[in-house]
Specification:
The structure holds 2 protein chains of 2 kinds. Chain A contains 12 helices and 8 strands. By secondary structure, chain A is α+β, with helices and mostly antiparallel strands. A 4-stranded antiparallel sheet of chain A has the order 1-2-3-8. In chain A, helix 3 runs antiparallel to helix 4. The radius of gyration of chain A is 29 Å and the shape is globular. Chain B contains 15 helices and no strands. The termini of chain B are far apart. Chain B has 3 domains: 42 residues; 223 residues, MetI-like (MetI-like fold); 58 residues. Chain B is flat, with a radius of gyration of 30 Å. The chains are: A alpha+beta, B mainly alpha. Chains A and B meet through helix 2, helix 4, helix 5, helix 11 and helix 12 of A and helix 2, helix 8, helix 9, helix 13 and helix 15 of B. Chain B: Pfam families: BPD_transp_1 (PF00528).
Chain lengths: 397, 385
């Protein structure tokens, strides 16, 4: 009897009133949310349309074809003040990419050096690294940018009194001037051989791996690849009669002539972002290496693996698994922080967009372009790093 | 049997063994920490050389050669630049910081009214200090004073306009005061908002979940400066004609929304780290959703993510410096504004002002991070292994 009672649960009938049914409540709350959301969006859209009408601003992206009429300090593609707004934004986008990529590379190098330094047995090195991290982590990046821009680079000597560095590099308050390579006739062969050398290195590396897996013999890969990548283009360079020459900056009466110049805006942004982000990367690297258990190192030593090789083959691959996800978000932070360029007038996407916004009043369009570009940059970086992470991740059977 | 002719009998005393390697004292410490291996020795010597090359000039520049007092740019410029310092002089211009110190604190707030922000500041320190020390009792009253009474007082005192206090409009606000107001409000808004967003993102209701996820991901994907631009150029477009927001308030909204998206992700990390059993235990006790969250899940989750929360606070504090780009004068903005003061323009003024501002920011951020480390140890109720 008792068994019969317990085996017939009343599943279909909720016991309480319909008000207490969590599912009904959930649907009710969601409907309310949607109604409020739609009402707010409608209200905003209505106000916006009215405001735009009153301010005589035509909405839409047609303005991108208009003449920009302003100059940008630095551009990777051809640009004059007669170019369109759209082209100005592309210039800004490339400038953002340029400072982000160079910044990421430098920040990674400094960050890894400092992070490893914090774990050093050498007391002095560890303390110096700690001081670096604590100083740069706790200061706003904008302040670091101004520090370089108006504190350091602006008080460098005038162009005619440029400080001369080795290799014909000059430093003054207009930036850093360095020899510009001039590609003469035949230089394309140097480039072709370089591409061939890179492709060949890839196959050599594959061959070396297969050979090691089959026979256990190690192939002197590093030297072969170096020889290929440096040697082949060098041979081509000499064979075609040294077509690449350098346009060296020469100190004139008032200014330097010739060579390439990197402006102080780019330099200060690049330096500030690299130093600032490096402090965070250092902490990530330290956490990653500390996260590899000591047993791994001891086991490798017990197997007779030398310390350097232990670090390379045992510790680093495992540490990378811990390091990569937070490293990705630091790279994204650096890319987003590059928008601080607007404060010192480096023509990045936000600075160019801000100028356009002031000239045309197309606030919604410009802001939407910013959002789309930064979101796609974020997503692309995440995808790349996730792919890299998946390659590095622990393969469990 | 007694043919053991080869028995060895030692005729002389054994040589004294060398004394054991010292395991204490300065010599041992130096050998272990600085000169353990040849590589270590080389690194130490290189670092010492770099330090010897950097530190004495820095100390010289910052303290010994610095101009501490003076009434104008003359003390911070060489004779050739129209000042009184000898040729080739270079040093920090602390006289500039000294002369502008009040402005760095209060911006262009009217001088006779500066007691108001000063009073709010003193009350803030008075209410905050006992809050931060775990042993001080009456935390509830303290929290009400800090989070309810103080904001109301600040709302009355800072803008004025009530009780016969003259009205001070926000464009006149500036300096450290703006930085602190922005960060305090940003922190006070972003933590609850971030918790709500995190709960929303983990909600079982698809519409709520989608909305929260969308908000968090979009805000996290774009730089703060675009959010501030949105708040300062797009918000006026969204409102009906005639309704205007104060610029300061718009920046506050932008900063708070931005920080809450980051806070949401930190809190979500904590929520995910709480075992399923805790949720199910709360459910089986018949607790409602909010009871479950308030009494069981959030206390554990928030405790886990204190470092992340404080990191977000520190980030927020540093990010308030960005409002200087949209034309407000926070600490960094007011320091930069004073570079253009003709009375103080010299080659070393900008760098001195920036070092001062950097030092203030550093003090606050470093203090916060140290305090979070301390709280982590206080709240660590787990069993030590």
């Amino acid at each position: 009897m008792a068994i019969g009672v317990t085996t017939t649960p009343e599943k279909s009938k909720p016991s309480g009133s319909i008000i207490n049914d969590p599912q009904v409540r959930g649907i009710f709350y969601q409907v309310i949310t949607v109604i409020i959301l739609v009402a707010v969006v409608y209200w905003i859209a209505d106000n916006t349309i009215e405001n735009l009408k009153r301010a005589n601003i035509a909405s839409g992206y047609g303005f991108l074809n208009g003449r920009a009429g302003f100059d940008v300090g630095q551009s990777l593609i051809a640009y004059t003040s007669d170019s369109t707004y759209g082209r100005a934004l592309v210039v800004g986008f490339f400038n953002t990419l340029l400072v982000a990529v160079t910044g990421i590379i430098t920040a990674t190098i400094i960050g890894f050096v400092v992070g490893i330094g914090r774990l050093s047995h050498n007391w002095l090195i560890a303390k110096l690294s700690l001081a670096y991290v604590e100083v740069f982590r706790n200061i706003p990046p904008l302040l670091v940018i101004f520090f370089w821009y108006s504190g350091v680079l602006a008080v460098l000597p005038q162009p005619r009194e440029s400080a001369a560095l080795p290799l014909n590099i000059f430093l003054n308050n207009r930036g850093i001037a360095f020899p510009k390579p001039v590609f003469g006739d035949g230089s394309q062969y140097v480039f072709y051989t370089f591409v061939i050398a890179v492709i060949a290195s890839f196959f050599v590396a594959r061959y070396a791996r297969i050979k090691q897996e089959a026979t256990g013999q190690r192939f002197p890969l590093l030297w072969t690849v170096l020889g290929l990548v440096v040697g082949l283009p060098l041979v081509a360079f000499l064979a075609t009669g040294s077509p690449i020459t350098f346009d060296v900056p020469v100190a004139g009466k008032f200014n330097l002539t010739g060579g390439s110049v990197i402006g102080p805006e780019f330099l200060s942004l690049f330096l500030a972002l690299s130093f600032y982000t490096a402090a965070f990367i250092a902490e990530i690297v330290r956490a990653g290496i500390r996260g590899v258990s000591k047993g791994q190192t001891e086991a490798a030593h017990a197997l007779g693996v030398r310390p350097g090789l232990t670090t390379r083959l045992v510790v680093v691959p495992q540490a990378m698994r811990i390091i990569i996800p937070p490293l990705t978000s630091q790279y994204l932070n650096l890319t987003k922080n590059s928008s601080l360029a607007i404060a010192i007038g480096y023509a990045d996407l936000v600075a160019v967009g801000g100028t356009i916004l002031n000239q045309t009043g197309q606030a919604i369009e410009v802001v939407s372009i910013w959002i789309i570009v930064y979101l796609s940059l974020s997503l692309t970086t995440s995808l790349l790093m996730n792919w890299f992470n998946a390659r590095m991740a622990l393969v469990e059977r | 049997m007694n043919s053991h002719q080869g028995n060895f009998v030692r005729a002389s005393m054994i040589e004294a063994a060398p004394a054991p390697i010292q395991t204490g004292g300065l010599g041992y410490w130096l050998r272990k920490n600085l000169f353990a291996t040849p590589k270590d020795t080389a690194l130490t010597i290189i670092s010492l050389l770099v330090l010897a090359w950097l530190v004495p000039p820095a100390v010289q520049w910052l303290f010994i050669d610095a101009a501490w007092t003076g009434g104008g740019r003359g003390v911070c410029a060489t004779v050739a630049q129209g000042g009184s310092q000898p040729e080739g002089w270079s040093g920090a211009c602390w006289a500039f910081v000294n002369a502008k110190f009040d402005q760095f604190l209060f911006g262009r707030y009217p001088i006779e009214e500066r007691w108001r922000p000063a009073l709010v500041g003193i009350l803030f320190v008075l209410f905050l200090t006992p809050m931060l020390i775990p042993k001080v009792p009456y935390k509830n009253i303290n929290a009400i004073l800090l989070l309810v009474v103080l904001p109301i007082l600040a709302l009355i005192l800072l803008p004025g306009g009530w009780f016969g206090l003259p009205f001070v409009e926000t464009p006149l606000w500036g300096g450290l005061m703006v930085t602190l107001v922005l960060s305090f409000v940003g922190i006070a808004v972003s933590l609850p908002l971030g918790i709500l967003l995190a709960l929303g993102r983990r909600s079982t209701m698809p519409v709520i979940k989608m909305l929260c996820t969308f908000f968090i991901e979009v805000v996290r994907g774009i730089p703060l400066i675009t959010v501030l631009f949105m708040a300062s150029v797009m918000l006026p477009l969204f409102l009906p004609q005639g309704v205007t927001f104060d610029k300061f308030l718009r920046a506050l909204i932008g900063v708070s929304f931005f920080a809450s998206a980051y806070m949401a992700e930190v809190v979500r990390g904590g929520l995910q780290a709480i075992g399923k059993g805790q949720y199910e235990g709360a459910d089986s006790l018949g607790l409602s959703y909010w009871q479950k969250m308030n009494l069981i899940v959030l206390p554990q989750a928030l405790k886990l993510v204190i470092p992340g929360i404080v990191n977000t606070f520190i980030g927020l504090f540093k990010d308030t410096s960005l409002v200087s780009i949209i034309g407000m004068f926070d600490l960094l903005g007011i320091v930069r504004l004073n570079f253009s003061d003709a009375n103080w323009a010299s080659a070393v003024t900008p760098i001195s002002g920036l070092i001062f501002a950097g030092f203030i920011f550093w003090l606050f951020c470093f203090g916060m991070s140290r305090y979070s480390g301390f709280m982590e140890r206080v709240l660590d109720t787990s069993h030590k292994r």
